Amino acid sequence: MLPFTAFSQFNSYSVTVRTELVEVCRSCFDKLSMNGGCNCPKLKML
Fold it and tell me: Containing domain of residue 22, as a range?
């Protein structure tokens, strides 16, 4: 098992990455709702 401190750091890192991906893909989702075509591979990897 991972030490608790390592797990905490990894968990906060994951949250940060997800937040950044949401910002990156926000305009992507806007395009998707408007013209029905958009690709965001980074979000699909989560």
Answer: 4-44
